Amino acid sequence: MARRPRSGPGRGWLLRLVIAFAFAQGAVSMARPAVSYRALALGADETAVGVIAGVYALLPLFVAVPLGRRTDHGRCAPLLPLGVLLISGGCALSGLVSSLPAMAAWSGVTGLGHLCFVIGAQSIVARQSAPHEQERNFGHFTIGASLGQLIGPIAAGALISGQGGALGRTSALALLVSAGVCAVALTSLWRIEHRRTTGTRPRAGGKVPVRTILGARGVPAGILISMAVLSATDILTAYLPVVGEHRSIAPATVGLLLSLRAAATIACRLVMTPLLRLLGRRALLTTSCLLAGLLCAGVALPVSVPVLAVMLAVLGFCLGVGQPLSMTTVVRAAPDGARSTALALRLTGNRLGQVAAPAAAGLIAGAVGVAAPFVLLGVGLMGAAGLGLRGEGGKEQVSADEAVSDRSNRRSAPGGCPRDRRAARSPRSGG
Predict the structure, then answer these.
(1) Pairwise CA distance, residues 273 & 334, whole Å
(2) Of 25-39, 183-197, 254-268, 288-302, minimum mean pLDDT range
(3) Is the predicted pLDDT of residue 353 greater than 60, yes or no?
C-alpha cells in the first residue's frame, strides 16, 4: 500500500504510451530518410536536403511554448491523436507531391505533429510519475522512441531501392507506408491520462514567466544537452543516406546502420538505472557526451562499413543517456505549475537545433564535403559534456545514492507520502 503510485493502479498507461510512441516515432524514422532519398531523386543537392530537414523543425518553434502553457493547466491526452493525424498526413502528402518546396512544407507538418505528440506524452509522464519514479519512467518512455528509430530505418531501407526514377517511386512508397504505421498508434491511445491527475496542476498565480523558467538552475543545461544530443541523432538520420550515396553504401545497408544505432540506444536505456547507481548522474552525462562527440566526428573518416557499424553502435549507446536525463533535469528544476512549459522550452531548443543543425550541415556539406557536418556535431557534443560537468550543481543534482536513499525514506514514511520536492532535490536529503 505504501508504494501505490499516485497516478492510479498499475503502469498500464505507461506501456500503452510507449507502444503508441513506438509507432509514431517509427513512422517519423521511416519518413526522415525517405524524404532525403525522395529529395535526391527530385534533383536536390546536399544544401537542399539540409533545408528540407530543417523545415521539419521550423513550425514547432512557434507553437511549442503555447502548447506547453495550455498543457500546464489542462489535459495532455488530446494532443496525442492530434499529433498522430498530423504526422500521418504530413508523411502521406510528402510522398504524393513532386516539388521540393511542397515536400519541405509537408515535412514541416510532420514535425508539428511530432511536437504535439511529444509534448502531450512527456507531460503525462511528468504529471503521473512520483518524483522517485521519474528517471525510470522517462527512461522507459524514451524506449518507445528508440524502438521506432530501430524499426523505422530498416523498413525504409527495405522499401527504398534503385536509382533515378525508381528511387523516387520507392521513396514515395516508403512515405505512404510510414503514414499508415503512424495511424496504428491511435489503437493504444486509451485511458492514458488519469482524471484525478488532470486537475492537480496549480491554477492560481497566473503563468510563470519564461524568463523565470529559464533562470531556474538546471533548466538551461538540460535544454542545451538535449539540443546537442538530438541534433546529432537528427543529422545521423538525415545525412547518413547522403554519406551512403557518396560512399556507394546501399540504402538497405544505411537503414540497418541507423537501426543498429537505435538498438544500442534501447540497450542503454534498459540499463540506465544500474549505470546511474554505478557512475552517478553527472559522470554518466559527461562521459557519454564526450565519447559520443569523438565518435560522431569519427563518422567523417572514410572507414569500412563494419567499422562504421561498430562506431554507430557505441555512438547510439552514448546518445541514449542524454534525452531521459535531460527530461528529468528540466522537470526537477522547473517551478511548480510550469513543468509542461519547461518541457516545451526543452522541445523548442530541440527544434531550434533541428532547424539550425541541418541548415548548417547543408552549407558545410556543400562547401567542404558531406562528412564535415559530423565533425561539427562532434564539437557540439563535447560542449554538452562540459555542460554535464558544470550545469547540474546545486539543488538540481540528484546522485544515484541520494535517489536510492530518497526511495528508502519514501517507503518507510507513514502512508508512503512523498516528501516535499525541495527536500527530495536537496543534496543533503536522505542523510
Answers:
(1) 23
(2) 183-197
(3) yes
Closest CA to 79 of 21, 130, 31: 21
**Cα separation, 401 vs 424, whole angstroms:** 12
286, amino acid identity: T
Q: Hey, is 167 helix, strand or coil?
A: helix
The values of phi and psi at residue 45, to 5°, are -95, -175
In Å, what is the CA distance from 107 to each residue of 60, 71, 216, 244, 310? Answer: 11, 25, 34, 22, 31
Quote the cell numbers at residue 34: 525517405
d(CA 187, CA 213): 35
Neighbours of 401 (CB within 10 A): 12
Query: Predicted confidence band at 398 (pLDDT cuts at 50, 70, 90)?
Result: very low
What per-residue confidence (pLDDT) applies to 206?
60
Could you tell me which of 238, 271, 208, 284 has the C-alpha nearest to residue 110? 238
CB 377 within 8 A of CB 63: no
Percentages of the chain per state (helix, strand, coil), in multiples of 5:
80, 0, 20
- CA distances for 135 relative to 17, 22, 139, 253, 332, angstroms: 16, 19, 6, 34, 10
Do 34 and 153 meet the contact criterion of CB atoms below 8 Å apart? no
Q: How far apart are CA 197 and CA 182, in angstroms?
A: 27
Other C-beta atoms lying within 10 Å of the C-beta of residue 43:
9
Predicted TM-score (pTM) of the model is 0.69
Contact 353, 362 (CB under 8 A): no
Cell numbers standing for residue 66: 503555447
Burial of 313 (0-12, 13-18, 19+ CB in 10 A): middle
What is the model's pLDDT at position 168? 81
